[in-house]
Amino acid sequence: MQFLGDALLLQLGYNATLVAIGAALLGAASGITGTFLFLRKRALVSDAVSHATLPGVCVAFLILVGLGGDGRNLAALLIGSAVSAGIGLWCMNWLTRNTRLAEDAAIGAVLSVFFGFGIVLLTVIQTLGIGRQAGLEGFLLGSTAGMLMSDALVIAGGGAVVLLVILLARRPMTMVAFDPEYAAARGLPVSRIDMLMMGLVMAVTVVGLKVVGLILIVALLIIPAVTARFWTERADQVVILAGVLGALAAYVGAAVSASAPNLPTGAIIVLMSFALFAVSLLIAPGRGVLAAVLRHQRFQRRVHIRQGLLALAQNQTIYEPLTLRLLARAGLARPDGVATAAGRARAAKALRDEHRWDILRRDQAQEAAAALYDGLREIETVLTPDQIAEIDRKIGTPKEAF
Amino acid sequence: MQLSLASQNGQSPRDRVSDSSPLAIRGLTVSYGEKPAVFSVDMTVVPGQMTAIIGPNGAGKSTMLKAALGIVSPVSGRVQVFGRPLDHQRARIAYVPQRASVDWDFPTRVIDVVMMGLYRQLGLLGRIRGTHRQIARDCLDRVGMGDFADRQIGQLSGGQQQRVFLARALAQGADLYLLDEPFAGVDAATEKAIIGVLKGLRAEGKTVVVVHHDLATVTEYFDNVFLINTRKVAEGPVAEAFTPETLQAAYGGRLATAQIDQISRPA
């Protein structure tokens, strides 16, 4: 535990510090980029992009070795991955535009074919016994063990460029995500904006390959966005919050994996991200599960009480055990279903309000107010006392009504 | 009235008259796959008036509008807005899409949606200022949604959603307004609010074109009609082009003769 605490506070030495800061930068950049993808409802495209990087990494490695160079030159490997991710993206766009395949099918096709090809190349490299290929598996699941200052700088630089582009393009990207037809009518180049969005995803993926690996980078792009969505109803806030959550998860995840070097960094970061998601799913106000359950129960209680009161007012027998229980608990009826004095008064009022609503809903001039009727709404929230008195004159005195 | 079941190719006299029409469409064909949804259609919108585009389901009404706006690309044909190509006149057009075309669970508030109408004024990096918010609030007031500015859009009823879309178009301050089925599935209060706003625009000299589905309100709401069923059936002032004959031609057997007589008789 002491060890983990040290890691979190960047006390674990130069390399662990480097990894934690690099991962946090990556988490922020991918969380923010992924939010736009999520809002555009194309989150899974990122999965195809990331899997399509593998052949590029392997080909770049083979070329490097073939030229007699060092196969682990990170910049060259990343350029290779970017090229093959770009080809994958192009294939996907071509498939959706020129065939009847839907985007999800195109994603599946590109993802599996490119990844399969990459695995074949990886196996070939291993059987060739070139020797220095050890680093390549790190691209699958991420490895930060040998992270260098230059690697961290690549992440920081790439992340900064991505964030700058997003700052410039945030308005058109949000508009395209919300209402692409309106954006097109305004003259926005929708397909080019979509391409820019994919380009950003590709950049984040390539930059993050080394840290989280290509299989799990999709989680870094999507989970922070869906987590942030639980907490706010504003797109700009979702974007910022996703950046913060992504950075937090990546930082903690990197620190944890530094204190237990045998654990793959990418997987730990994803689990951290998931923990934040699970907490949000449960306790977020408004969209959270707990809040929804409570809201539904409160609503159900109101329905049962109201129905129970109307039944009491009309001397009908109540069969629903829940209704009886709720009425009894509120002191409106005895457990056997006979109304108390308070219950009789409330019941009479409920029935009278129903009659009032009936009159109101027959009145053409009151259409807007009548539309608010849902069986539960108090008529006092819709009409003024004068209007209610007016309706009561039409019903007659309470005696006549009951 | 012009009843053209076969569209003329080449220069028609209308071409010259239409030089400054808010929206002039010539020989427009739009196709999904290899089945044209709109075939060789001409349209000349009269400035400062309200025009309804009418036709049965699947007649190509919305498709024509989308092609006129460059949202879908036509197979052939050309579109001129106030006498110039569409791309030079984007700032003068406001579009109100069908409200079902977007996801209303999108994380945004009513005021943010209306602010999208100010996209050109804001630019890429411009800060949102008090004046922008004021414009957006004024537009919401005009459609009777002033109290809803800070609501999340998911909490709105269908009619309220439609009014927010109209407010976004108003914020653009355009000269030509194109609306796709703004009255579909809205409550009576919304219908009244929208038609009030549209008539207000007309009074300011703006031009309004509406894809419309309710034949019963055509004579009451509009100055001109454009009847389409893949091809243009009729175009002109309501009194001349909205007749039993043109309706029969556009709707065929889908409307009983008695219905048609009742609808097209002036109220």
What would you note in describing this structure?
Helices cover 75% and strands 0% of the residues of chain A. The longest helix of chain A is centred in the middle third of the chain and has 30 residues, at 149-178. Chain A contains 19 helices and no strands. By secondary structure, chain B is α/β, with parallel strands linked by helices. Chain B has one domain (13-250): Rossmann fold, CATH 3.40.50. In chain B, helix 6 runs parallel beside helix 7. Classes of the chains: A mainly alpha (402), B alpha/beta (267). The interface between A and B is medium-sized, with 27 and 31 residues.
Write a compact overview of the structure shown.
The complex is a heterodimer of chains A (402) and B (267). Chain A has 402 residues and is mainly α. Chain A contains 19 helices and no strands.
Secondary-structure map with pairings?
The complex is a heterodimer of chains A (402) and B (267).
Chain A: H1 2-8, H2 14-39, H3 45-51, H4 53-66, H5 74-98, H6 103-128, H7 138-141, H8 149-178, H9 180-185, H10 190-212, H11 217-229, H12 235-259, H13 265-283, H14 289-313, H15 321-329, H16 341-362, H17 367-370, H18 385-395, H19 398-401
Chain B: H1 13-17, E1 24-32, E2 35-44, E3 50-54, H2 61-68, E4 76-81, E5 84-85, E6 93-96, H3 110-116, H4 119-122, H5 130-142, H6 158-171, E7 176-180, H7 188-203, E8 207-211, H8 218-221, E9 224-229, E10 231-237, H9 238-241, H10 244-251, H11 257-264
Parallel strand pairs in B: 3-8, 3-9, 6-7, 7-8
Antiparallel strand pairs in B: 1-2, 1-4, 4-5, 9-10
Helix pairs in contact in B: 3-6, 5-6, 6-7
